[in-house]
Design goal:
five-stranded mixed beta barrel; five-stranded parallel β-sheet; alpha/beta
Length: about 450
């Protein structure tokens, strides 16, 4: 008589917020899969549902609460984790049936909660196998060809509008050799582009700077430039996100000129007016940023700078906003995102005087988006006729969609290709640019 093995419990996951949260979700699911759980793509098939929440803004908190409510309505057995875990009382007051609540990157607590809610049936055929009945490989929530690589947790800054340190703590950097081993593993599994993330990538290693590690017979200092150099030897594309413009960032630009690192920096400037930056308590408020941008472009002409800005911060005057628009005209950033200031419970900015009326925020938001869209359109028009390196994300019957080195997934533009059905996701190809609009490029693979 054949032995029927027990069916493993199935776990569903709703992951909200930034790529750092996505990495946390991948780690949680990888651990659960190694413990014998299977994954459910929908509420109906799940024995328990995890909701990984975002708590950065009040609007993000409300989205998280809506996701929790939906999971309870559709499934009923819900475990909450992530940044909103710090507000367990608020969650339980609204959803008393939640099974468990844990905070950000509390992986062990989440796993224990899942084991309590949906235990894996004991089987002598499975439990003697190390790691259970699954492959010992990391689970990814991104496409096979690109991966987020988290290099640290937390942040040492105390920006007036931000509560991340209270949610995720101070900076804790990972060992460089551990990061590089993970990078090698990801590339071996098919990753072509590593997206380096943290709360403050420039600050990587300052807490463990005196702890260099051996890697491939070399000593690697835990610092952004040293790490980027080693990662560039592992992956075809390495892209740096969340980089504060400290002076030592200058040392990574030559790596971009050499082709070791993608010529792209994601720098959250947040504003340009010195008065607003002072009220924001922003670090690295360097009055010579524009001069540095020019110097970076001299070293690496193709460098793309993306940034985000907050409009309507308490006390922002019309003169402050005009200063920001003039600064943007001179900076000529490649990609810009803008946000209306939003009070967040626990942020010191809430207590500042002279809050900007909502209608003024909306008007300024519209103006900054119009200005930056015009800059983006002009910069993309200048690329018509050039040949650019493009990584392919999707391929269909009518063509393919990819990204140039100036475009990060999900947040930047795309390159739309004709005559590209022969390509595959993850291919890196040369593309002749034929046209452009405000955000995207259009082209054809060389030789097609």
């Amino acid at each position: 008589m054949a032995t029927v093995l027990p069916s493993p419990p199935r776990v569903g996951m709703v992951s909200l917020g930034c790529p750092k949260n996505l990495v946390d979700s991948e780690r949680i699911l990888t651990r659960l899969r190694a413990d014998g759980y299977s994954l459910s793509p929908d509420y109906a098939g799940a024995d328990v549902v995890l909701v990984n929440t975002c708590g950065f803004l009040d609007s993000a908190k409300e989205e998280s609460l809506e996701a929790i409510g939906e999971a309870i309505a559709e499934n009923g057995r819900v475990i909450v984790t992530g940044c909103m875990g710090k507000e367990a009382d608020a969650i339980r007051s609204r959803f008393p049936d939640v099974l468990a609540i844990t905070g950000a990157h509390e992986y062990e607590q989440v796993v224990v909660a899942v084991h309590d809610a949906a235990p894996v049936p004991y089987s002598p055929y499975l439990d003697l196998v190390p790691g259970g009945a699954v492959e010992d490989t990391d689970l990814k929530l991104t496409p096979r060809h690109y991966s987020y690589l988290k290099i640290s947790e937390g942040c040492n800054h105390r920006c007036a509008f931000c509560i991340i340190p209270s949610l995720r703590g101070d900076l804790v950097s990972r060992r460089p050799d551990a990061i590089l081993r993970e990078a090698e593993k990801l590339v071996a599994a098919g990753t072509r582009e590593l997206l380096v993330i943290s709360q403050d990538t420039s600050a990587y290693g300052i807490d463990i700077r005196r702890e260099p590690r051996s890697w491939k017979g070399r000593e690697v200092v835990p610092a952004m430039t040293d790490l980027a150099r080693e990662l560039g030897r592992i992956a075809p594309w390495v892209r740096l996100h969340y980089v504060y413009p400290y002076p030592h960032v200058d040392t990574v630009i030559p790596l971009m000129a050499e082709g070791l690192v993608v010529p792209y920096l994601d720098i959250p400037f947040q504003h340009a007016s010195p008065a607003v930056l002072k009220r924001m308590k922003r670090p690295a408020n360097d009055a010579k940023v524009l001069e540095r941008l020019r110097r970076w472009r001299d070293i690496c002409p193709d460098i793309a700078i993306r940034s985000s800005f907050v409009v309507g911060f308490p006390g922002e005057t019309e003169a402050d906003f005009d200063y920001l628009l003039d600064w943007l005209d001179e900076a000529q950033l490649d990609r810009v995102g803008a946000f209306r200031f939003e009070p967040v419970a626990g942020a010191t900015a809430n207590a500042l005087p002279d809050h900007v009326p909502e209608e003024v925020k909306e008007e300024r938001y519209a103006r900054i988006m119009e200005r930056t869209a015009a800059i983006s359109a002009a910069k993309l028009q200048a690329k018509i006729g050039r040949t650019l390196s493009v990584i392919i994300d999707e391929v269909g019957e009518e063509g393919a969609t990819g990204r140039s080195q100036a475009d990060a997934p999900e947040i930047d533009g795309q390159v739309l290709l004709r005559d590209a059905a022969h390509l595959s996701a993850g291919d890196i190809v040369d593309v002749t640019i034929e046209d452009a609009d405000e955000h995207d490029l259009f082209g054809v693979p060389v030789g097609a």
